[in-house]
């Protein structure tokens, strides 16, 4: 597939399973390469990734459910949330946790005061590029994924469970697995609303 075809294949897949032919080690290697080759301002390499599979993956979503239960407004609301988490995320093969190392950002702010106001935004851009690179790489392998944001609700418990350094700030969770049902149709707004072209 060419790049545009890969982009079209990269969709939010919510019906995930754990029936993958690739080993955890193969997937981990692809994710590392995707993050390693993603660009960042000043080559800061501020993105950190934690790949969870097996029991570690399930533990992450148990933590998430526990925290969601604590803040849920009713048992009925939690039942719906629990169904979504168990069916869409925990049922998958694994999850990538994406972090920004805030020490890297702070050091750049101190080292380059003229650009200090920009480094947080640039770190978010680096995170987004790495996130997308992982997602496209997984799509190329025929693996479904979605992008989730249960941070900061789960941050402290996840940090304790997986021994995450204090300077790492959780920015996204990418559950992945076998595609049990395809994504729905994607709507596009008019090109006239989004683009301008001059020559």
Please name the CATH architecture: 3-Layer(aba) Sandwich
Q: Please, how many domains?
A: 1
**Cα separation of the termini:** 31 Å
What is the helix fraction of residues, given as a range? 40-55%
CATH topology term: NADH Oxidase
Structure write-up:
Strands 1, 2, 3, 4 and 5 form a 5-stranded antiparallel beta sheet that branches. The chain has a single domain, classed as NADH Oxidase (3-Layer(aba) Sandwich). The radius of gyration is 18 Å and the shape is globular. It is built from 8 helices and 5 strands, in the order αβαβααβααβαβα. The protein has helices at about 5-10, 25-35, 55-70, 75-90, 100-110, 120-140, 155-160, 190-195; strands spanning about 15, 45-55, 95-100, 145, 170-180. The chain is α+β, with helices and mostly antiparallel strands. Helices cover about 50% and strands about 15% of the residues.
Topology:
Elements: H1 3-9, E1 16-17, H2 24-36, E2 47-53, H3 54-71, H4 75-90, E3 94-101, H5 102-111, H6 119-140, E4 144-145, H7 155-162, E5 168-179, H8 191-194
Antiparallel strand pairs: 1-5, 2-3, 3-5, 4-5
Helix pairs in contact: 2-6, 3-4
């Amino acid at each position: 597939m060419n790049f545009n075809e890969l982009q079209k294949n990269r969709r939010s897949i919510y019906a995930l399973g754990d029936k993958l032919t690739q080993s955890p080690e193969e997937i981990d290697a692809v994710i590392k390469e995707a993050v390693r080759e993603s660009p960042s301002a000043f080559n800061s390499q501020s993105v950190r990734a934690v790949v969870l599979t097996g029991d570690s993956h399930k533990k992450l979503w148990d933590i998430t459910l526990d925290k969601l239960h604590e803040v849920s407004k009713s048992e009925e609301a939690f039942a719906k949330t629990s169904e979504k988490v168990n069916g869409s995320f925990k049922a998958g093969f694994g999850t990538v946790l994406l972090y920004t190392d805030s020490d890297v950002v702070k050091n750049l702010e101190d080292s380059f005061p003229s650009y200090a106001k920009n480094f947080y935004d640039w770190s978010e851009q680096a995170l987004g590029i790495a996130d997308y690179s992982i997602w496209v790489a997984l799509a190329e392998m025929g693996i479904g994924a979605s992008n989730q944001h249960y941070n900061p609700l789960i941050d402290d418990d996840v940090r304790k469970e997986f021994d995450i350094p204090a300077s790492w700030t959780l920015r996204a969770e990418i559950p992945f697995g076998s595609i049990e049902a395809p994504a729905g149709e994607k709507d596009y707004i008019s090109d006239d609303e989004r683009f301008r072209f001059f020559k």
